[in-house]
Amino acid sequence: MPTFKLNGQEIPFEKGDTIIRAAWRAGIEIPHYCWHPGLSVAANCRMCLVHVKSGRQMMMPILKWNEKKQAFLPDTKPKLVPACQQAAEENLEVDSVGPEVKNAQAAVQELLLLNHPVDCPICDQAGECKLQDYYEEHQATLKRKRTEPVHKPKGVRFGPTIVYDAERCIMCTRCIRVCDELVGDHVLDMRERGNRNEIVLAPGRELDHDYTLMTEHVCPVGALTSRDFRFKARVWFLKSAEGVCTGCATGCNTHVDFDPRYGKVYRLRPRDNADVNRFWMCDQGMMTYREVHERRLVTPVLGRGPSAEKLLPEDAPSEAATLLGRVKEKGKLAVVLGAGMSSEDNFVAARFAKLFGTSRLYLAARDAEAVGWKGDAILKNADPNPNRAGATQVAGRDLADLDDLLADVLAGQVSSVVALGHFGGEGEGKLDALKKLDVVLSLASNEGPLPSVASLQIPVASWAETFGTFVNAKGMAQTFVRAIPAPDGVHPAWKTLCAIAKELGLSLAYERTGDVRNDMNAAAAAADAQPQASA
Amino acid sequence: MAVGIKVVPKPERTLSDQLYAPEIAKGLGKTMARFFKNTFGPEEEKEIATVRYPEEKREYPPRFRGIHRLTQRADGSPRCVACLCCSTACPAQCIHIEPAEYAEGDPRHGYERFPAVFTIDELRCIYCGYCVEACPCDAIRMDTGLHMPPSTSREHFLYDKEVLLNLPGRDGTYLTANPRHEPGDPTHPGIDREQGH
Fold it and tell me: CATH code for A301-534?
């Protein structure tokens, strides 16, 4: 691979790379605002100016203050180039830390802050703001401007999700480029110039496509803020855990931002993964964090309708075992795997079915039409279930869906049900047939059609409260980690199933997610090896 | 290194010391003399170092940190913008704030937010004054000169926004010492798009 020299260090680059991209790939940050690895080059913030020392030097005439003569005298200085636009070439010598460059960075930083309101205390970006970071790093001088800053519109509603503050904006045009290049919807543009420059909406439009929160995500300053996250938390209180989005089968990688003091998830941010979501996520995916706290089930409930009674969490497994102990024909128990549950949960459920003595496995999955989900060519998969592939994988075969289950219930083939997850059965009264069965055990984290028809609901941990694996539409198994603790007495579904199995006297005992995962991978490896052996 | 040693002579005991009773009488005499002077003597000659506490109180130094108050704007709304700097700085984690936004149409909309909930657990507070230092708006002050009044319930020590806003400073006002000109005020020096540059 060809290389060039950045501050004396050899940096490898690929053909077509710019200096900043090659450095970024090597893990070296050249300060920048407008450049984003996923977007085209605008080269308008001028923060990434570097000095190319090799080759012919272009000198700029300047006037330099001469202390001795007490006058400005003609002088020259090297012309700097933006690293985001300068193509990397073999044997280029680039300096990004020298005095010339430092000077330029400090000057650019001062210019960007010239009319900035410095309202950090009320700005949501404070704490993760590039202006703050680079001020400390590259300027750190007091403001010299003594006149009143130029005032521009604040708190402008750009759409249902985004609020715009023109005073904080540095006109890097990242948001415009996200709309243009990622979504292909030229809804944002800029008007005027200089210190009156501002971002505006296309006439008669709102910022209402499916990737509006990405404009906020790429905004390096506090100009665009998410109406959902606005004023909810200060980012320095938040910690991050690595998650996988549950919105659809794409399985976008996320940062789950939560406040450890309250055990509350506040937002999702896309986590870079070149193979899955690159740098992006859709709005619906970003909002899936809400289900960690909204419409949650936290208490086990026995019975249906008015006769329903709440149970203590520790009594739930024994009640479930009593219920399942009443099942006469074990082969008529249907175990419904969840397309929204982790592979670990589904694997243990499939094991549970086998040990219980039934081979009736079904899959509960959200129906795209019923939940109003539409895929697109950017990120959104047509299937709104994060782990359909994983559930199929652990079952070892294609699974019958809920319609088949209902048909089998009506035909008398199924007399009792154990169902995982709250996905599936959307649509008014679709699952009414299940209400007639005595034994319908639902293990779900949220309210949904399946838990609502259950004769015993046991709450389980949501995706933010447990470790697990989702297999996306491409067949990539992606693990996610626990962000916050589950509510008191609530455990992951696989653990709850193990507790029920223990009460029933079945030999299904896992202590840790790692044990489940090892067994799951061993089973998958065995299943892979089998066809080869028979061939 | 040489160590300098100073020899202190042992005090000699006189006959009256050794007799015990005269020295006791001398000591008691001093005590009783002070007692009669402080009880019956003229006011200006009394030498009493203590105060009769609950009825009589010492004046606190000007920088005494009493219970907190939230300063008000001229229109009575809280000066606080719920930036959470104070609760970030608080080592006792006794400040709970929930920010909210001024409604659309309000002249302050887009400029500032305000605390919908602002609660200080005065029992947990260690009166270090970091919150006051951290506040960028001079919205929280500890210049009430007040002690925490005793109470029988822990809940009584959770001071909410209304209580904190209605505690006056030692000067008796609810305002800050640093008046500020809000956007929209005629005194605000800002120039906006409408007025031109």
Answer: 3.40.50.740
Residues in chain B: 197
Q: What is the pTM of this model?
A: 0.86
Q: Tell me the two tokens of residue A247.
A: 């919105």
Instruction: Confirm if A190 and A199 have CB atoms less than 8 A apart.
Output: yes
DSSP A87: B
Torsion of CA A232, A236, A238, A244, to 10 degrees: 100
Q: Residue B10 falls within a domain, yes or no?
A: no
- Domain at B80, CATH number: 3.30.70.3270
Q: What are phi and psi of A482, to 5 degrees?
A: -75, 135
Residue of A164, A197, A234 to mutate when probing chain B, most B C-beta within 10 A: A234
Nearest-Cα distance to chain B for A148, in Å, is 6
Contacts of A117 in chain B (CB under 8 A): none
Taking residues A330-348, report their average pLDDT: 95
Judge contact between A208 and A348, C-beta under 8 A: no
Chain B hits for A152, Cβ within 8 Å: 193
Asked whether residue B155 falls in the same domain as residue B75, the answer is: yes
Contacts of B193 (CB under 8 A, 6+ apart): A151, A152, A153, A196
pLDDT per position as a tens digit, A80-102: 999 999 999 998 999 999 999 99
A1-112 and A301-534 in the same fold? no
Strand A333-338: give its sheet, edge to edge: A309-310, A301-302, A456-459, A439-444, A416-420, A333-338, A360-364, A400-401
What would the mean pLDDT of A328-343 be, rounded to a whole number? 94
Q: Which residue has the tokens 């008398």?
A: A412
Asked if this assembly's ipTM is beyond 0.85, the reply is no
Chain B residue numbers with beta carbons less than 8 Å from the beta carbon of A115 are none
In three-state secondary structure terms, A72 is strand
pLDDT digits (tens, 9 = 90+) for B77-124: 899 999 999 999 999 999 999 999 888 778 777 667 899 999 999 999
Q: Domain residues for B114?
A: 69-165
Q: How many CB pairs under 8 A join A and B?
A: 45
> Side-chain half-sphere of A37: how many Cα atoms within 13 Å?
16
CATH 2.40.50.180 fits A1-112, yes or no: no
Q: Which residues make Cβ contacts (< 8 Å) with residue A274, sequence separation at least 6?
A: none
Strand positions, DSSP E, A333-421: 333-338, 360-364, 400-401, 416-420
Q: How far apart are CA A84 and CA B1, in angstroms?
A: 69
A156: which strand partners? A164
Residues A257/A482, Cβ–Cβ less than 8 Å: no
